[in-house]
Amino acid sequence: MTAMTPAAPDRTTAKTPSGRSGSRAVALRALLRDKRAVVALAVLLLLIVAALFAPLIAPYDPSTQNLLLRLRPPAWQDGGSSAHLLGTDQLGRDMLSRVVHGARVSLLVGAGAALLAGVVGTAVGLASGYFGGWADRTLMRLADVQLAFPSILLALAVVGFLGSGLWMVILVLGFTGWVSYARVVRSEVMSLRTRDFVTEARAIGVTDVTIMRRHLLPNVMAPLATIGTLHVAAAIVAEASLSYLGLGVPKETVTWGGMLADGQLYLGTSWWVAVFPGIALMLTSLAINITGDALRDVADPKAYRR
């Protein structure tokens, strides 16, 4: 009787985990070598910490007024004081405290609007790309109709008709931004639905919802990460624009857009009232965009090999 030799291990299966971990390690090392991404991520983390712990970080209440201290310059200018590092505004409110507290609203609006738009757009894109036919035509025509209206004008119209408010702004910016998610997810799903793993899943009786959730959705997360971060930055700018026009968050809530609106009359004499919230808005948008590109590459390590 001949001795049976042990079966050789499946090399593909055995190497898959180590291959994945190796790709992720390569992506992480490449990310750490990208100085722009590291700086952007550090700025973004600093903003998140400032937003979460604003009452502890801000030296003053952002709404406390003192007309005796109105329009004091930053600490490094003549007439400035170390008690107000970034100066005071036209009502004597501390600019540093207001910039720190303004980060809370901006990041909440950006993250909330991007999450809502991502959920709606991903669901629409999965259904449209997977089922095709009349469902695809109907959903894409709805997307075309929305694209016919500039998003900021549509947001202005809806907010002007339904009223302003923090949650209303989040809802409006979320429901006006789902189209970009839907189109990207649809194109990715249309290329994936004919792959062998989808065909085999159908053959063994896996439901359509399970196929979309377990097999298709994980394969579209890389482009969703990029779109999501870009939408966060766009939503922050849109909220600032609405607040600048007086149609966003209520006036008593500290926002960078409201601070820009208040400071535009003092650009010639007290530049800091408008410049510092503008710098905070610019740095936030730039950091989010750069971080989004880096996260896309981490989610898709093959990008580093191109």
Task: Describe the protein.
This protein is mostly helical. The chain is 69% helix and 0% strand. It contains 13 helices and no strands. It has helices spanning 11-33, 35-52, 54-57, 95-131, 133-147, 151-162, 166-175, 178-192, 196-203, 208-216, 221-244, 256-263, 272-299. Helix 2 packs across helix 4 (95-131). It is elongated, with a radius of gyration of 25 Å.
Mean model confidence by pLDDT: 81
Helix content: 55-70%
Coarse structural class: mainly alpha
Largest pleated sheet? none
SSE string, helices as H and strands as E: HHHHHHHHHHHHH
Radius of gyration, CA atoms, in whole angstroms = 25 Å
Share of residues in strands: under 5%
Shape: elongated
Concise overview:
The protein has helices at 11-33, 35-52, 54-57, 95-131, 133-147, 151-162, 166-175, 178-192, 196-203, 208-216, 221-244, 256-263, 272-299. With 306 residues, the chain is mainly α.
How would the blueprint of this fold be written?
Blueprint: H1 11-33, H2 35-52, H3 54-57, H4 95-131, H5 133-147, H6 151-162, H7 166-175, H8 178-192, H9 196-203, H10 208-216, H11 221-244, H12 256-263, H13 272-299
Helix pairs in contact: 1-13, 2-4, 2-13, 4-5, 4-7, 4-8, 4-11, 4-13, 6-7, 8-11, 9-10, 11-12, 11-13, 12-13
Which structural traits does this protein have?
306 residues; 0% strand; 13 helices
